[in-house]
Amino acid sequence: MHPSRSRFALLALLAAVLAGCSDQGPTTPSAAPPGEAAHNTLEPYAGRIRIGIVPAAASVKIGATVGYDVREKGSNAYLVSGLAGEQVTVTWDASVAVATNNRRLQVVCTGTTADRDQRVAAGTAAGFPSAWEYVSAASCWRVYIGERPLPIDTAAERVYKQNVIDAGLATSSAFWRTVDGTVYEPRYVTTKTTGTARSSRNPPRITVASSARVLIGGAQYRGIAEVMRNAAGTLAGINDVPMEEYLYGVVPRELGPVQYPEAEAQKAQAVAARTYAHGNLGKHWNNGYDLLATVQDQVYGGAAAEHSVSTEAVNATAGIVATYNGALINALFYATSGGRTAHSEDVFSVAEPYLRGVWDAPPGQELPSTSALLNDLRYPAWTGAYASWHGYHRWNYSWTMAQMSCVIGDFANQPVGDVTAINILSRSATGRVTKVEFVTDAGTFTQTGTGIRSAMQYINSSGVPTMLPSTLFVIERVTNSAGQLTGYSAYGGGNGHGAGMAQTGAVGMARAGHTYAQILQKYYTGIALQVKNGTRRNGTSPVRTTTTDPYDCTSA
What we know:
Blueprint (H helix, E strand, L loop, with lengths): L2 H18 L27 E10 L2 E5 L3 E5 L5 E5 L4 E24 L2 H13 L4 E6 L4 E9 L5 H13 L8 E17 L5 E4 L3 E4 L6 E3 L2 E3 L2 E6 L5 E8 H12 L8 H17 L11 E2 L15 H9 L3 E5 L2 E2 L4 E2 L9 H4 L22 H9 L16 E6 H12 L6 E9 L5 E8 L2 E6 L2 H5 L2 E2 L5 E2 L6 E7 L5 E8 L8 E2 H9 L4 H8 L4 E4 L25
Parallel strand pairs: 1-15, 18-27
Antiparallel strand pairs: 1-14, 2-5, 2-11, 3-4, 3-10, 5-7, 5-8, 6-7, 8-9, 10-13, 11-12, 13-14, 16-17, 16-28, 19-26, 20-21, 21-22, 23-24, 25-26
Helix pairs in contact: 4-5, 4-6, 5-6, 5-11, 5-12
């Protein structure tokens, strides 16, 4: 080959490589980005709450009870339409082909798909439009993090680039280029049953008239249906709903209005539920919602759960929450107390001044001491408690030696042989067991606090180990006529953790003629009732304990 032609071919090849990778930027991974970060920063609270109906799934179905449009959050761009009762399926696709003609910030042209995908995911998680395209001439993938519209605005691009660098997603060698063609972006994909599909960068959502209902996973809800990525990178089905309408679906699930129609008890439940919701706004901010719809926060049944009795209670107490020294309280509640509520530190780590144990009985009807309460667990005679009529006011469970060996073996995660003794090592002032030891052939094991209930499970009527209803109990050895140990019996009272409002006690107080304010002020010491909004947190979760216990008071 002629020397001049050789030089020309070499220059042409070099130009192709530079065009494929960059004119001045990196061609290999440099400054690898951090792992995918949570980016679902929530807007300041403005009267609406976001509930994670489907916390994590590969796909989520949404729809409405009327004809509807699915639109992109933020831009409000139309995606697809649906008929009444029809649901669309939302998925996440990490590489959707998108036609583009704009400016994009190239951070690297990488030789591996793993690095490409990590960078695009990190950029997307940080809120920057991110994409990639393959350059065959250089055998690498251009990764773009950030975009700007044409025409070129050098000053704006400089600021934008610095923001990407500050986020740890690029170095100073990143550069802007005009991209006219097809790139591949991570996107939401909304698909109809007919197969028609549209993609969007931002979450798809459905908004309908207030008289209609949206569908999430087939269930009906007020407000808006939305699908958003969570912190784990899967999808969450979210109900964005006005706070008071959210409570319409919470109160009847937490205190069944058919079984317990007492208006003042329902109002007390409404205030407690509202207080918890306001106090925990942003609890799950990194997943795109405030609260879960389960006992991990508050049970929320949506439109199907609503009942006129509960709705009236919510409306009658609109906006009212419980506060202590001006701050929202942690409005714990549970099913029934067994006659005396617990101090918060009896079951949780924090001593709250408004969560003090009280006798769950009318004045003059209290037992004289904790010792008398413990004795009444064995030999129930006290009928003065507000909820002495409740099925879990007193309870009794027994274990054979074989059953207790199985239960404690599960707790210890090893075979333990015979359980030769169960010793209560400490109790709180309100009678709750705070530390217990199990003496076995394999050694001695101890448990404290609320963990005692799951460590010492009873065998239910179906033969399934089940958590003890409460830590208010005494334990006795069972022996045969020869004095040999054959098992154990526990005598207890109450169902739930015991701190805060006893729901059936609230019912008993309502039946006795007390108002919702009197009910709340009994169970939450020194509180005030006022209209006050919570503050949605982003980046830090409030230190709160769940309000509810894994027990459904509606079936009590």
